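From: lab user (bench 3)
To: helpdesk
Subject: output format question, protein + pyridoxal-5'-phosphate

Hello, I'm new to running complex predictions and I'm not sure whether the block I got back is the full result or only part of it. Here's what I submitted:
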Amino acid sequence: MELMHRYTDETEALSRAVVAYARNRIANPQPLDGSASGEELTRRAGETITPEGLGGEEALRIWAEVLAPATISTDHPSSMAFVPSAPTKASVLFDLVVGASSTIAAGWIDGAGAIWAEDQALRWLADLAGFPGTAGGVFVSGGSAGNLSALVAARAAAHARLGERPASGWKVALAESAHSSIVTATRVMDVEVLRVEGDDRGRLTGAALHRAIAELPADQASSVFAAVASAGATNAGTVDDLAGVAGVCEAGGLWMHVDGAYGGAGLAAPSVRGLYEGIERADSFIVDPHKWLFAPYDCCALLYREPRRARGVFRQEASYLDTVNQDDAAWSEWNPADFAYHLTRRARGLPFWFSLATYGTDAYREAVERVLQLTTDAADEIRRRDDLELVTEPDLSVILFRRRGWTEADYEAWWRRILEAQIAFVQPTSWHGEKVARLCFVNPRTTMDHVLAVLGTMG
Ligand SMILES: Cc1ncc(COP(=O)(O)O)c(C=O)c1O
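Helpdesk reply: Thanks, we reran it on our side. This is the complete output you should expect:
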């Protein structure tokens, strides 16, 4: 089949089929679906990459009949494992537009309209956090990429301040609350982790951070270039002592990075906004709209208090990019490529922008509050049941609880059993060394009926 063919009757038919598939996906309730082995998928899908091509209709059939059912719908109201998703209909629809538009949102010169819109969405987030008007950033693929870029910028800032790499090497301070991507970022960067003891819920506090730095040998004190605070932690949804951490960072000249990939959405909810006190003093923070801000994958907002510090690290210099990099030119007003490790980028913030523009920010506040209320109601229900017990109070929308009398094997068998029965997708976790049940909510369409259905499987 020819690659760049005209728009034929066959293309029209494929257009209709693809749009009908996408339309059905958002118009009607979808199955939770499950997983499958590669062997089974190979057997059922057959060879899909062939010299002649299968044709769009057949490729779509294989997707719909074989591959999609082996791919969990993380936006299902009973998807409560890891951090699920809940993209709005407007955001999903606009994702189709982004795909159809061939927009390169790396530099203002060819992406101005898209970048302007992304920047409006970033501005809303920066305002929620209380960042200054000069703050700015970029949408990257996910929290992992956002955390890595922020820490790379942080190290460069420390290097510029000290004028050299400390003889003892670089260190990032973090507590148990920090997401695994932070530790991976330190490996990528070849820097060490300074483990700070968390409080009784694993949270990073200013006092413990201060102690950990003070206990370092004198020649290592300047090696700590950043502290990472979580808001909130993925495992238990806890929010670190942001104000305390900010105080220590300001006193010691450390870069404060706040990882709000999952929990940053709570900034929009007045009922929990107080937990984030101090975030306005951070040097950088991230939040993933693809988690609890109702956007499709993949989308992480990375914001810097002083974006120029990131530009100094990430800007790519090449003779063919000279026009792009002319700082005072109208065509280089804001180049997203300058603020993370990437050059070409999809305008992945646009579905989020379109959704914000469509529904308005009040609808976001209400949706986040609804999820928080569901969490409160679900926690109350767990307290009422004799065979269940909360292991820690929820700060945001994660609930950790034990089923009295269950062994590790019981928790493992439980999640498999209820996924197999298409009741819910859940995952156990560990808390202080004990295997426990974990529910994570981000979907405003999840109701107490969905929660009761899960709890009913633990009898
Ligand atoms: C707090 C936190 N940080 C970082 C990440 C990594 O984000 P991503 O999976 O988008 O790379 C996650 C993912 O769950 C997270 O919850």
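A quick orientation on your result: The first strand starts at residue 136 and ends at 140. Let us know if anything else is unclear.
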